[in-house]
Structure formats: C-alpha cells, structure tokens
Specification:
This is DUF1667 domain-containing protein. It holds the Pfam family DUF1667. It is a single chain. The protein has two helices and ten strands. It is α+β, with helices and mostly antiparallel strands. The strands form three sheets. A five-stranded mixed beta sheet has the order 8-5-6-10-9. Strands 1-2-3 form a three-stranded antiparallel beta sheet, covered by helices on one side. The longest helix has 12 residues.
Amino acid sequence: MAVIQLTCISCPLGCPLTVETDGAGQVVSVTGNTCKRGEVYGRKEVTAPTRTVTSTVRVEGGSVPVISVRTKTDIPKEKIFPCMEEIRKAVAQAPVHIGDVVVENVCGTGVDVIATKDAL
C-alpha cells in the first residue's frame, strides 16, 4: 500500500491530506480533510490530476497588446506544456470580450481557452 501526502488546495484551509492507495493505484482512503471537497481533491489528484491554465495572448488591432486568458475548465496535468505552446502561438483579433473563445479545443482536450479581459 502506498501513502501519498498532499496539501489540499480546494479552499483556503490547506488541509494536510494523507491518501492511501492499493497496489493497483486505486484510492483506499483519504484522511486529514475537514470537508468533502478535500476528499474529492485527494482522490482526483492521485488518480487523474488536472489544472486550470492561465496565460496571455497577443491582440492585433486592439486597445491593449495582450489579454489574459484561461482554460474554461481544468485540463489533464500532462497537457499543460503542450497547451501553453498552443496558447503562445495564438493571436486574437480585436474586439475581444471577456468569455470569448480565443483557442478552441486546446490540444484536443475538449476545453476552450477563453478571454478574461476585454480588448476593444
């Protein structure tokens, strides 16, 4: 049985989690959490970790040279660097509004990259 120590990032408490797995990598137990979100985070982090990616994208013809962007939902952790490469190559055409899709289906994840700032 493997034991993995994590710090929960689901809320500001930062609970110290202990996640126990069986020999096949299946979660047996999560302890140390003070809320249900901690247990969900511990299980997900050990079996299929995901992250929200934030960055910037260049803008052509706008009031600002770059806009902030983020993935609409989490993406698999192993896709972060390939996604950042796609985002780095992206160029948005003004006008851009908060929530507009800047990169569609980034790296085949099914997740869009959306604007978090306006560029008029």
